[in-house]
Amino acid sequence: MTVHQVVESTDDCVLPKNETPSISSKDVIPLEKATDLLPHDGDIKSSSRPNTTEAMNVPEDEASSNGHSSVARQSSDLEKLEGDGLPRVDGGLHCWLFLAGCFMVEALVWGFPFSYGVFQDYYTIRPPFSTESGIPAIGTCATGIMYFEAPFINLICKRWPKFRRWSAPLGLVIIVLALVASSYAKHVSHLILTQGILYAIGGGLMYVPNNIFIDEWFVKRKGFAFGVNMAGSGVSGVIIPFVMAWGLHRYSQRTMLLAWALTLIVLAGPLLYFVKPRLPHTDTRRTFDFSFLRSRTFWILQTGNILESLGYFIPTIYLPEFARIVLGVSQAEQTMTVSLLSTTSVLGAVAAGMLVDHFDVTTVILISTLGSSISVFLLWGFASSASLVGLCLFGMFYGFFAGGYSITWAGVIHVLRGEPNSGAVDMGFMIGLFCTGRGIGSVASGPVSEGLMYASMGSIGAYATPFGGMIIFTGFSALLGGLAWVAKEAGWFGKEVSVVGTEEGE
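The structure assignment produced for this chain is given below.
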């Protein structure tokens, strides 16, 4: 490959034919950065195909800044690469089978911990677990660690590319072992270790590579692909709680855990064959730029993310128990509260994604935090104690507004890329870091919520119930998630990020 070829495959360097560029001082690229455009010896030796694959996989948000000409160039690159025998991107049998596999992995891996509220209600009233403390920590460990480990697994997959292909099968084996072991648990500590920690380790190994592979399989429809992938957890959150509630009532905890292990083997196992990288394997190891850690903006955004996460999972875990203790409704009606929350969270995620594309990300964060906190204070605090309808309304509104908070991470990345001291921001790694922030909040919310249980905080509505303190904590946690909006209005962000969703030159 010549230097001329490398320049042609870089969007920012392509010029119309027969046109002389006008170069200003700000257009001059430092020598140390310019050398990064040149191919390394390992890159040339690792594959006989042309290195135009890199041009294909420019992140969508970067490609959009170059207008329609960038899309045309990518289309040309696709035709060249498809001629090399690689599967099609953005369509074709292999591509759709890959996306179906991602959807199923996301649904099966996340659907189980997201329906933990049903298991918590079961463990709370049945021996040998009902006499022990720490039951909420089982669910928060599972979800928290799965969030927390995302950037570390991402680093491993980038550092040792061969591991990407074997990460998901290894994760499936670990999850099955965790479920089988938890079915024979005799104490809550056993469940925390197996159904919580061990399950989370396997779950992370299964779902994290999906985001890396999607970047290879989709170019023009990348946003659609990420949406379908994330929708898996929301859809399973509607179905799995009913299945688990029915099985726990009819059979037992052991039967349902073993049945779920078998379900994962039968459903997820065959599809893992299709969840694989599209591009040929190379031994090139990628390094990361950690300059963003010096950015005050990053730490403000991450702090708001953690504060919001402290209370985010509490309604998902405690709504069935609230419905049973306060309203005395049936098992099916208890499960319905969680399913409605999961359903509207999918809609909220789609809506937030559309808003982030057109508005300042801090505005979208403000909408999410105000909507979720108001629904907690008013609907859960007052209407929910009167009837099941009020509790279902809370689940729907809270799911819609709170469910869109994590989607703002895409807009946050635009903010950081606009900061001169943030360096080269890798999208996959940055999303992993925000997942870690959400995981910290999830793990901490377990003991916090257990400590707030039976702390009534008033004489009216649900505030007078054993869940009063928990409701107030959840509402303020959601409100504090809007820290980023306050910081921007106070001028704590850099001038370069006063407008979000755009980049220099747009």
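Interim note for the steering committee: The two ends are 31 Å apart (CA to CA). Residues 1-80, 495-506 have pLDDT under 50 and may be disordered.
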